[in-house]
Each structure stands twice: as structure tokens, then as C-alpha cells.
Amino acid sequence: MAWQTPKTNWAAGDGVANGDLNRIEENIRMLSQSAGAFGTSTGSANAYSVTASPPLTALSEGACVAVKINVTNTAGSTINVNGLGAKAIKDSEGLDVPAGRLKAGSIYTLRYNGVNFTLEDGYCSKLLGSLIASLGSAAYTNSTAYATATQGTKADNAIPKSEKGAVGGVALYNTVNAHMAEKASLSINGHVQNGVYTTTLNTTWSGTSAPYSKTQSIAGILSTDTPIVDIVLSGVYSIDEARLEAWGQIYRITTANGSITLYAKEKPTISLPIQLKVVR
Asked: Which residues have C-beta within 8 Å of that of residue 68, sequence separation ≥ 6?
């Protein structure tokens, strides 16, 4: 049966007819089915039966039942609720549940869609997450295959070096190899390389009057780089105060291949540890 339209125009002195009670009982039954019944399954793996309470007297679309599974399934499965007939148990994509999906002692919520019972526990999302994670692990496990795959061919579980992109967060071999010598201290973030260089400026500066200058060797830096440069603080207030004051005298920094040149208004009188963040 379907949802019954209740009588809403009751007046004083109206009698209650059989039809009124029938409508009320049918609506209560449908509400009970939608809210869900519960029972522990019986039967063998893959062919379950359950006597749910409150009892389902008919399978209406949207009917819900929570079932505690008595034995783990070994293949696609069916369930017979309150003797209303065996119905297939499907996941949210309409696929049969795989072996081991329904575990003994676990409770699963099933909702009837008019044809089958559908599991309502987000399993497909969990499965997708597990699949992505396993792909990432496989990519890392087979990273050697990237290096050994012949150009334009595929080694086992590998991607040709000619293909661009990344699998599971592992950059393809040719992208890394092309920059290996130049960017030994750089890491790859998507299609961007970034890294941090560190060096310490001593107190030897060129010039007898402002502006004073200092050229500092930094292996790997390029003339085309525009690094973000900052002083490295020690965590000791007196030392950091002196470093910040000296750092404030430096007003310009330029880059060349393998070095940087700094310009100061006053010669710093203490050594200054600095770091340079480079993005290419």
C-alpha cells in the first residue's frame, strides 16, 4: 500500500470508521519501515534471512532494516526480510557486494529501492580512498621502474618516461632527472621546483663608504632567481636583537649564477645567518 491521506476535518461528534483506523495503521507501518527495523540474520553465507522487529509486512520503496550479520559473505549475497522474498544486496553503485564485505558480527543498514537492498555505509567512498592509497603505494614501490623503463615503452607497473605528470605523488623520472644536477637541494611541488638555501655572511664588506657590498657564493642559485631572503634568528633575545639591527642595514640583494651580492648602508659588525627560498 501507499501513504494514506488522513482525515483532517474532524468535528465534535464524528464517529471513527474502519477506514480511518486503517489509514492510521498503514501510515504508522510505513513510518516504521522508513525509520528502520532490526534483526540478526540467520542462514548461510550469501543467502541471509532475518526476522526484523518491528516486523516489515511488505517491502515498500524506502523501507529500511538494520541487520547484524551472522556469517561473513563469500560472494554476492541476498537477504530475505520477514519472509517477503530474497532480494540482492547491492552497494550504492548497484554492484554486488564482494566477498568479505559483510562481516560476521557487524551491523549494516539496508534500504529497499523497489528492486534490491542497498548498503548505506559509504563503502564506495572508502573503497575509492583505499584504491587511491594503493595506487600511491604502488607508484612508490615501482619508482625504480620509472628509471629503467625504455623511452616510449612501459615496464611492469611503470609509465613511459615520455609521459608527463605524476602518479600517487611520484614525479616522473624525466622531470626529476632533467633538473638533478642543477637543483640537488630543490624539491618538486607539482610543476614548480622550490628549495631553501642557507649561508652565513661574515663581517667582511667591500667599500670605504656607503653603499657597502658583499658577494656571497651559493652553489645552485641562478641569475634568473628572485629569492625570498630573510635573517635566521637564534631564539636568544640579545643575539636576535643584534642580528635584526644589522640586517636592517642591508637594502638590496642581486643574484648571479652561483652567487648573490648584497648592498648595505652600514657595514654589519656581526655575522648574519640567512636563508633564501627559491621558486622556479
From this structure: 38, 39, 40, 41, 105, 106, 107
DSSP letters, 133-180, are HHHHHHHHHTHHHHHHSPTTS--TT---TTS-SEETTEEPHHHHHHTT
Is cis: bond before 54, omega within 30 of 0? yes
pLDDT digits (tens, 9 = 90+) for 138-170: 444 444 444 444 444 444 444 444 444 444 444
What pTM was estimated for this model as a whole? Answer: 0.38
Distance, in Å, from the CA atom of 255 to the CA atom of 134, rounded to the nearest integer, reads: 43
Distance, in Å, from the CA atom of 261 to the CA atom of 247, rounded to the nearest integer, reads: 14
Helices (H), the chain: 18-35, 123-141, 143-148, 173-178, 237-247
